[in-house]
Amino acid sequence: MTDELKLYGYARSLYVCRVKIALDMKGIKYENVEEDISNKSADLLKYNPVHKKVPVLVHNGNPITESLVIIEYIDDVWKGVPVLPQDPYEKSVARFWAKFIDDKCAPAVIKVFLSNGEQQALAEAFEQLQILENELKVKGTKFFGGDNINLVDIAADFLAYWVGALEEVTEVKLITEDKFPKLVKWAENFINCKVVKEILPPREGLIEYFKKWTGKE
Amino acid sequence: MTDELKLYGYARSLYVCRVKIALDMKGIKYENVEEDISNKSADLLKYNPVHKKVPVLVHNGNPITESLVIIEYIDDVWKGVPVLPQDPYEKSVARFWAKFIDDKCAPAVIKVFLSNGEQQALAEAFEQLQILENELKVKGTKFFGGDNINLVDIAADFLAYWVGALEEVTEVKLITEDKFPKLVKWAENFINCKVVKEILPPREGLIEYFKKWTGKE
C-alpha cells in the first residue's frame, strides 16, 4: 500500500514549518494543502475540531495535530534520519527543551513585540533567552542537537527566523549579538541548513504579515 | 548494575502523583525524596535549575524533569505495562490529549477557582471540559486509555481528584453529574484504580492546602 500523506498548512506559520522540516529531513513526500487562514477549509475543521488550527498531518486518513506531536509521530513511523535522539535520556532532554521553548520562551518573546518593547516584558524575555544561550554555551555544539539539528532546533525556528522579521517591523531589538552571541550564531547556522533554507517562507511576506499583526501598517 | 532511581517530589503535587502512578504501573521501585516546597533542597535546585520544581526523577545520576516528559522516559526505558499506546497513531492521540489537558483544560479550571467562580471563567472551563466529556462519550470506554488507564488518564489526575477538594473549599461546583456525567464516572473509576488509590494524597491535607491557596482560611 502506498501511504497517503497530506499536510494542511500555511506557509508563513512557524508551526507548519516545523513539520515540513521534519518531513524533509526524512525525505518523506507529501501533498501540501495550503489553507486560507481567514477562511479555513471544511477538511481542516473536520481534522482538528478542538483547535481548528494548522498544521494537521493526515496519514492514511488519520489526522495528527500539534506540531511537536506531529514531529514525534513522524519520528516514530519513518526511520532514516532521526529527529529525536535515540537514547531515552537524550530524548527526554530534547523533549524538555522543546517544551521550554513553547511554554516559557516563545510566550515571553511574543509579549515583547505585542507590548512594543515594554521594559518588564523585555526583562522577562531576556531571562528565558539567557537560559537557551547558556544551554548552547554548555553544549558547545553547532546546534542544540549537536552536529545536526534535532527536535529542539526545529522547535526554536521562531527564534531563528520569525523574530528577525518582528524586530525589523517593531524596531525592538531582542536577540542581539552582544547579549546572545551563541543564539545569534546558532540562528545563522540553522537558517542556512539546506533542509531549513528551502522551507522558510520569504521574509517580505512575514514583514507584511507582522505589520498587520502589530498594527504598524 | 543496579539502577539508582530517586524521585524528588511533594506528596500533594498532582504532577508528582502522575509520575508515581506511572512508576507503580510498571512496578518500578524508587527512593522517594519528599521536598519541603517552602525550602527546596540544594539537590532539587541542582537537578532542575530551569524550573526549580518537583517532580524530578534522577536515574543513575541523570535528572529528568516535567511530569509528562518523565512519564515518556519511564515508558521508553522500562518495559512491562505500557503507559502510552504502542501504535504510533494511538500514541500521538494520547500525546494530543495530555497536551490539551495541560495547555487548555487545567488553566481554564484553575482560573475558575482563583476567580471564585466568576461567570466568564466558568463558561471557558465548561467549554474545555465539554471537549473531554465528548471524547469519553465517543470512545465509550471506562478510561481515556480504554479498559485501562494510560497517559491521558494520568494527565487528568487533577480533574479526577484535586478539583473535588477545590470545589469543597470554594463552594464552586464545576464538574457536576448533570453537566459532565461521563467525566464524573471516569473520575470515580480513576480514583478507585488500585495503583491510583494508593498514591493519591489524603483529601484533608489538600483541603487545608487549598484553603490557604484561595485565601479561605
UniProtKB/TrEMBL annotation, chains A, B:
EC numbers, comma separated: 2.5.1.18
Keywords: Coiled coil, Transferase
The UniProt record lists the keyword Kinase: no
Domain GST C-terminal residues, every copy: 87-213
Enzyme class: transferase
Domain of life: Eukaryota
GST N-terminal domain segment(s): 3-82
GO molecular function, one term: glutathione transferase activity
Biological processes, Gene Ontology terms: glutathione metabolic process
Annotated catalysed reactions: RX + glutathione = an S-substituted glutathione + a halide anion + H(+)
Coiled-coil segments: 115-142
GO cellular component: cytoplasm
Family recorded in the similarity comment: Belongs to the GST superfamily. HSP26 family.
Pfam families listed in its UniProt record: GST_C, GST_N
The protein, known as: Probable glutathione S-transferase
CDD domains the record matches: GST_C_Tau, GST_N_Tau
UniProt keyword DNA repair, yes or no: no
Organism: Artemisia annua (Sweet wormwood)
